[in-house]
Amino acid sequence: MLDLFKNARRAAPVLAACLALGAAAAHAEANWPTKPVTLIMGFPAGSGVDVVARAIQDPLSKSLGQPVIIDYKSGAAGNIASEYVARAKADGYTLSFGTAATHGSNAALYKKLPFDVEADFVPVAPVLDVSNVLTINPSVMPVKTFKEFVDLVKANPGKYNYASTGNGAGTHMAFAELNSRLGLDMVHVPYKGGPEALTAVVRGETCCIMNQVQTVLPQYKAGTVRLLAVTTAKPVAAVSEVPTIASTGLPGTKGFDSSIWFGVFAPKGTDPAIVDKLNAAISAAVQQPEVRARFESQGNSIRVETPAQFKQTVHDNRAKWAEVVKAANIELN
Questions:
Q1: Is 31 exposed, middle or buried (0-12, 13-18, 19+ CB in 10 A)?
Q2: Which of 10, 138, 289, 293 is most enclosed, with most CB atoms within 10 A?
Q3: Which residues belong to the signal peptide in this entry (predicted)?
């Protein structure tokens, strides 16, 4: 009996410390955030992904009551940034601004990733769906319609180089899916980011790119590039005169929908209460009238989902792109 009493006395401080730590953790979670929140960006400043992140930076800061900082760790199709966040402390202060590529197709493209795009992250909230559009330099490809584009490429297998914003990026995967489905033989030329890739098209170094509508709009309005078809299932209001690929009726185009999404992820183990707070703040930010109007004018549409719904979106997206990668026979190391 005496031994039990002594053991209990020895255990009491440990128990008290554990209870104190638990109470402190609960207090910290309840009061989160108490310091700036950092979004880790895997793409260069000025890229399409960065433009979207900066558009929600201020409204998200106001909603959270703390500054939101964007930290650039670009390279390797976003994998450098993803690995950084996967290894970060799961306290809600270090987040990934990811895409359908970084948390989808990259899992199929890169066989030796040091993280799992699903198991090592908590999907917090999507931000929007992004429309890509087939953009050409008319001096390099003297065509005016999507059908003429397809006919020209098929008549000249291996001649035309298309640009992308990097191996495995959405701009790469959209073109890979198109080439696979329509039997087109083109050469992929990856660049370090959106600005470089579009510049290559404008200069005539490459013939074309499947780029985001928001990125190519200025060049389109200036008349330096031509838009042939959008990759989404439905027309894009910002360029309503441009048909969808699916609507052209060419063999292989039925049901074509190669849109991508952008969203926010936290490291695995992040407290659900923090995830819910973040989800609510992000959803409120993208639904602000001025933010929604800005995105829609750029050819994008906001996407609002719960963490559970976004988790399913990520899972389904990963499966879809795995099929595309297999069909196109693409593998990156």
A1: exposed
A2: 138
A3: 1-28
How many angstroms separate the CA atoms of 285 and 62, rounded? 9
Could you tell me if 259 and 233 are in contact, meaning their C-beta atoms sit under 8 angstroms apart? Answer: yes
pLDDT band, very low/low/confident/very high, at 143 (cuts 50, 70, 90): very high
Q: What is the chain's mean pLDDT, rounded?
A: 91
Pairing verdict, β 161-164 and 132-136: unpaired
HSE (CB half, 13 Å, CA atoms) of 9? 6
Amino acid at 94: T
Res 131 pLDDT > 60: yes
CB count within 10 Å of CB 38 equals 16
Contact 145, 227 (CB under 8 A): no
> Do residues 275 and 266 touch, judged by C-beta distance below 8 A?
yes
The C-alpha atoms of residue 15 and residue 192 are separated, in whole angstroms, by 53
Residue 28: pLDDT over 60: no
Q: How far apart are CA 194 and CA 210, in angstroms?
A: 11
Question: Considering the entire predicted model, what is its pTM?
Answer: 0.82
How far apart CA 226 and CA 246 sit, in angstroms, is 18
Which residue spans within 214-322 are E strands per DSSP? 226-230, 260-267, 301-302
Q: Give the H/E segment covering residue 208.
A: strand 208-212
The helix or strand, by DSSP H or E, that contains position 307, with its residue range, turns out to be helix 307-328
Going by the DSSP 8-state scheme, the letter that residue 122 receives in this structure is E
Q: How many residues does the chain have?
A: 333
